[in-house]
Design brief:
Distance between the termini: 24 Å
GO molecular function: heme binding; iron ion binding; monooxygenase activity; oxidoreductase activity, acting on paired donors, with incorporation or reduction of molecular oxygen
CATH superfamily: Cytochrome P450
Protein name: Cytochrome P450
Pfam family, one: p450
Structural class: alpha+beta
Oligomer: single chain
Organism: Escallonia rubra
Largest sheet: 4 strands, mixed
Strand content: 5-15%
Number of domains: 1
CATH class: Mainly Alpha
InterPro entries: Cyt_P450, Cyt_P450_CS, Cyt_P450_E_grp-I, Cyt_P450_sf
Radius of gyration: 23 Å
Number of strands: 9
């Protein structure tokens, strides 16, 4: 589900290969910095963790792996608060609901910082966005703009026609496939659906054809996501940061930043040009440009701020919504009784011949339980964006020092046996009855959007988008697996990427339930 703050969440698999040679050449220099920093004060008690190697710490243990799964396995041995050393960087991994509460509530201010990682800093215009900014006055002012101007309930309601139109377009496309008994690539169709919503809301544009501008837009987004996952020496060995400038990764980062900056600037110039065609629907760029003109506050909203906000929205919302809907359909096709219950609920409420509208969603309790259960088992960002401690604190008797890198493993928390019964099973019923557990940031056993002061400000609109799409897919069609494919063949392994989608595209056979109207 969409995230603009916490939910630009990442698996951060570490690919060290391009930098290993330079790193080894720099080890003699590294010794001069490392040795004095690695001494610990007698009597200090730190969280347990796996032993590391000299110089690189635990980096070698995380290479070429699905990081959130591997960290969960390590936490089973070393505990829900686990210490690692990634190069020179002291690191903590939190893997239980109890530890999430320590980070997001008890010590929220202490854990409110962000690490200064090279790729993230560059693409966020030196950390002036919402997602990667340090916790400071500028961040607070920008969050106020997000909450009051960009994603307020009134603003989200103004975007309702866009969401409804795109749902209708998707349903009509699938109906054509159903009428001709063709397979639907749901992964691809949902990616187009969510991308259209986000680009229309943010940019006032649609990129759903195969033209040059569509390829350019998608290419920039996907390359930025890849760059966010890239290993840079300076992130873990700051004294050797100068070596990054000799790597292909650094050239790739600069190239991607230049291309995306030009892309954002062209969009802004188009909105500023009085001769450009104007949409009746105000988009995010329109809102930010108007605020830049009229806002009276010590906070200076610059063009770079606007570009950084666009980066957050485009990278943080597009694929996260897609992933959540695809995972939900994956689990439902693997569990036919749950699919039937969800379809019966929505069909009894809505009836034949009409589409589900957003006003209907509050009545669909079982559908909401399906979405919650999906985000529990398959958070789009299994590791929430890394945080950095701003001061020292003590948790469970362990000292945590300032400038410690902190990962909250939302994927492991969703499988925490202390918080969930039968945690590995897909059971939407666990959210029915007396269960009040929700993902709004108050229940730390379910944190796909994060929690605390840095939780996602766009979670409500993201949840509405997911629920609206899923409700219409279940209402409008019966779904079958392709010939020769059994439900046991549908795996739950995720891709190794910034946002974790199912490893393989989901192909299903749609069977029309009724005639449908267009919004």
């Amino acid at each position: 589900v969409a995230r603009k703050g916490e939910l630009l969440a990442a698996s951060y698999p570490i690919d060290m290969a391009p930098a290993v040679l330079l790193l080894l050449l720099g080890l003699p220099i590294l010794l001069l910095f490392l040795l004095p920093r690695c001494r610990t004060t007698g009597g200090t008690r730190f969280a347990p963790g796996p032993p590391g190697l000299p110089f690189i710490g635990n980096l070698h243990q995380l290479e070429n792996s699905v990081l959130h799964r591997q960290l969960r396995q390590l936490s089973k041995k070393y505990g829900p608060i686990m210490s690692l050393r990634l190069g020179l960087v002291p690191t903590l991994v939190m893997s239980s609901a109890r530890m999430a509460k320590e980070v997001f509530k008890t010590h929220d201010l202490v854990f409110s910082g962000r690490p200064s990682l090279l790729g993230q800093q560059k693409l966020s215009y030196n950390g002036i966005d919402m997602a990667f900014s340090p916790y400071n006055d500028s961040w607070r002012e920008l969050r106020r703009i997000y909450v009051l101007d960009l994603f307020s309930p009134t603003r989200e309601k103004s975007f309702l026609p866009i969401r409804q139109e795109e749902v209708s377009r998707m349903i009509n496309k699938i109906s054509k496939l159903a009428n001709s008994s063709k397979l639907a690539n749901l992964s691809e169709m949902l990616a187009t659906f969510t991308s259209n919503i986000i680009t229309r809301i943010a940019l006032g544009k649609q990129y759903d054809d195969d033209g040059h501008e569509t390829r350019r837009f998608l290419g920039n987004v996907r390359e930025s996501q890849a760059v966010f996952m890239t290993f840079f020496i300076s992130d873990y060995f700051s004294p050797l940061g100068w070596l990054d400038r000799s790597t292909r990764s650094y050239y790739r980062l600069k190239k991607n930043f230049k291309e995306t900056d030009i892309f954002y600037q062209e969009l802004i110039d188009e909105h500023l040009n009085p001769k450009s065609p104007k949409s009746t629907q105000e988009d995010i760029i329109d809102i930010l440009l108007q605020l830049r003109k009229t806002r009276s506050s010590p906070f200076n909203l610059t063009m770079d701020h606007i570009k950084a906000v666009l980066m957050n929205i485009l990278l943080g919302a597009t694929e996260t919504n897609t992933a959540t809907i695809v995972w939900a359909m994956t689990e439902l096709i693997r569990n036919p009784p749950f699919m039937k219950k969800a379809q019966e609920e929505v069909r009894q409420l809505i009836g034949k011949g009409v589409n589900v509208e957003e006003d209907d969603l509050e009545k669909l309790r079982y559908l909401k339980a399906v979405v919650k259960e999906t985000t529990r088992l398959h958070p789009a960002g299994p590791l929430l964006l890394p945080r950095e401690t701003t001061q020292s604190c003590v948790i469970d008797g362990y000292e945590i020092r300032p400038k410690t890198l902190v990962y909250v493993n939302a994927w492991a928390i969703g499988r925490d046996p202390e918080a969930w019964e039968n945690p590995e099973k897909f059971l939407p019923e666990r959210f029915l009855g007396d269960s009040a557990v929700d993902f709004r940031g108050h229940h730390f056993e379910l944190v796909p959007f994060g929690a605390g002061r840095r939780r996602c400000p766009g979670m409500s609109m993201g949840a509405m988008t997911v629920e609206l799409a899923l409700a219409n897919l279940l209402h409008s069609f019966d779904w079958e697996l392709p010939t020769g494919i059994d439900k046991e063949d549908i795996g739950t392994e995720g891709k190794r990427s910034l946002v974790v989608n199912p490893k393989h595209d989901l192909f299903l056979v749609p069977k029309a339930f009724a005639e449908h109207v267009v919004y």
